[in-house]
Amino acid sequence: MNKRTIIPIASGKGGVGKTIFAANLAIALAELGHATVVADLDLGGSNLYTCLRMPNKYPGIGDYLKAGDIAFGDLPVQTRFPNLKFLPGDGKTPFMANISYDQRLLLLKEIKSVSARYVILDLGAGTLFNTLNFFGLAYKGMIITTFETPSVMNFIMFLKNFIFRVISNVARHNPDILNLLIAAFQKPINSEALTVSHLVHRIAEIDPKLARQIQKTCGRYRPRIIFNMGDHPDELNMVEKLDHTLRQGLSVEADHFGFIFHDDAVRQSAKKREVLLSSYPQSIATQNIVRIAKRVTEIWDRPIENSRVRLMADTQKQYENLKLDA
């Protein structure tokens, strides 16, 4: 396998459709003819198998870490979809939510060696260190959010914790900087908001070379945002303010990568334990996910200029088509 693209998929909170999206994105990529592996990395709450209509009977990551006598390369299971394999999580192995540092390093190494054109990682919701580290496996990962205020706030908090985790990892060998970071992170909630630019400035006063390295490393990360359960293109009007928040507070440039309309077919497929793409191929959510999959194959490796404007125009066009079909 000459080229491998790892796509971690995260969310700031649960209930935003992350696992259903991850499963169906992987199916869509496989149906486009690409060898794909979708891995359940929601350790402590693995349920990706339900979205693929797979039985929970195969050894997975939990067994690999606990037993020690299973080859990681033997874990992926062929699904009923050509080109798609499933890497189970901790299905029947308890207490895997808090794996050790050494286990995490081993798992990161093994995931990087998975043989597939696309490796989709369904991560746990929230900001556990495991989740943040898995998200850091690629410079371009997806974060899925709805337009509800708590979801957007948790999405921003996820990115904030992720960037601060990156900074801490880069600075881990400098005790003075680590002490500075610990003090900064432990400031009371009513103190002035901590921004990445301010933090880098403080670090530069102690170690200018390290500050430049941190800036360079953080600048490599460019998350792709998926807006789920949308009702109307006008909801994207908040994206300009969101971009400002990410730039000012976190020094992060994000690409707005996809919009999925609210669709009762998603709830029905989950309720009946059906696969969305195959059971509801004409649904608007299916069309949106297939559209995102095609975008992955065409433009994943490059920044998207004016992604906010492009997504708003594309979503408006889809909305007009929906009204015509109604």
Describe this structure in words.
The protein has 326 residues and is an alpha/beta fold. The chain has one domain: P-loop containing nucleotide triphosphate hydrolases (Rossmann fold, 3-Layer(aba) Sandwich), CATH 3.40.50. The chain is 49% helix and 13% strand. The protein contains 14 helices and 8 strands. It has an 8-stranded mixed sheet with strand order 3-4-2-5-1-6-7-8. β3 and β4 form a beta hairpin. α1 crosses α13 and α8 runs antiparallel to α9. The radius of gyration is 20 Å and the shape is globular. The termini are far apart. The model has no long low-confidence stretch (mean pLDDT 93).
Task: Provide a concise account of the structure shown.
The protein has 326 residues and is an alpha/beta fold. It is 49% helix and 13% strand. The chain has an eight-stranded mixed β-sheet with strand order 3-4-2-5-1-6-7-8.
Write the layout of secondary structure elements.
Elements: E1 5-10, H1 18-31, E2 36-41, H2 48-51, H3 61-67, E3 77-78, E4 84-87, H4 101-112, E5 118-123, H5 129-135, E6 142-145, H6 149-170, H7 175-185, H8 196-206, H9 208-220, E7 224-230, H10 239-250, E8 255-261, H11 264-271, H12 276-279, H13 284-299, H14 307-325
Parallel strand pairs: 1-5, 1-6, 2-4, 2-5, 6-7, 7-8
Antiparallel strand pairs: 3-4
